[in-house]
């Protein structure tokens, strides 16, 4: 279901595309995506609102953490710059704009050439091992999109249990041809993107979606491992349901208020020394949310 028409007709400068849960921007040398604010959610009519996943901000944080981790340890091609920040009820992810076409846009012959390099990067990922699952630098991990849909744990992230040990492999978990950018002239990979579901997982979580066009879901005739993945999550992780980001006004409304002046309050009398509570109330809390 597409978002409301007004989102398309009244885009901010630089807005390239609008989906039901996020917006995309090209700003100079930056590519930016952000979550939708609440007033931008899709109204489906009959009192139904299409609510984006509250786990999207954690997905953005995961993407940034993984790229930083891989940049320090591998030669996997990644955007040179990536950052994440929150503003007024929306989470932004900004990164270097990388030139290239998606692998799925190439001819079959050219895709075979690219696949050889891609398999080398996949072997690099497999060489990264951990005895515990998770995302380096983040307490939570996000299950692959094929596992969590509108009907199952849609707003949840996962915290690995402390006692879970094993042999875990670094996975992308959305490694389809749509997430591999390629120089169409040299057929060299310029970047592998969208690491929102990555981290250290059981090796079987990584499915070879790069071998065909299409999204990272099991198509007809392919093995559907959704049940197996869900069982592993429930047995080895704690579910952490995510709240939607508060707007700036929400934060202002939650600020503690100093008591109102009154004739019964000695500190309200002219020339009286204000109480320490009143001296603290304003600037400390406001600074907290600015």
From TrEMBL:
Residues 49-199 form the Aminoglycoside phosphotransferase domain. InterPro entries: AGP_Transferase, Aminoglycoside_PTrfase, Kinase-like_dom_sf. It holds the Pfam family APH. SUPFAM superfamilies: Protein kinase-like (PK-like). Residues 249-290 are annotated as: Disordered. This is Aminoglycoside phosphotransferase domain-containing protein. The lineage of its organism: Eukaryota, Fungi, Dikarya, Ascomycota, Pezizomycotina.
């Amino acid at each position: 279901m597409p978002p409301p028409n007004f989102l398309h007709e009244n885009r901010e400068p630089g807005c390239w595309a609008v989906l039901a849960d996020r917006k995309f921007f090209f700003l100079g040398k930056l590519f930016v995506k952000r979550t939708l604010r609440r007033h931008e959610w899709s109204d489906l009519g009959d009192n139904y609102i299409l609510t984006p996943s509250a786990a999207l901000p954690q997905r953005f944080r995961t993407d940034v953490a993984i790229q930083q981790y891989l940049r320090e340890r591998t030669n996997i091609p990644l955007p040179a710059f990536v950052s994440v920040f929150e503003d007024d009820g929306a989470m932004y992810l900004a990164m270097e704009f990388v030139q290239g076409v998606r692998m799925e846009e190439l001819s079959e012959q050219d895709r075979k050439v690219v696949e050889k390099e891609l398999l080398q990067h996949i072997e690099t990922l497999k060489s990264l091992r951990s005895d515990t699952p998770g995302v380096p630098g983040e307490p939570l991990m996000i299950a692959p999109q094929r596992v969590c849909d509108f009907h199952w744990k849609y707003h949840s992230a996962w915290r690995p249990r402390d006692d879970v040990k094993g042999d875990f492999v670094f996975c992308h978990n959305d490694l389809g041809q749509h997430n591999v950018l390629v120089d169409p002239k040299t057929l060299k990979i310029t970047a592998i993107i969208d690491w929102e579901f990555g981290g250290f997982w059981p090796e079987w979580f990584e499915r070879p979606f790069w071998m065909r066009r299409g999204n990272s879901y099991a198509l007809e005739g392919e093995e559907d491992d959704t049940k197996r993945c869900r069982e592993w999550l429930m047995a080895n992780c704690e579910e952490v349901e995510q709240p939607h980001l508060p707007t700036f006004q929400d934060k202002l409304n939650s600020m503690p208020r100093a008591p109102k002046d009154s004739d019964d309050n000695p500190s309200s009398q002219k020339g009286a020394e204000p109480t320490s509570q009143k001296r603290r109330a304003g600037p400390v809390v406001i600074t907290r949310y600015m």
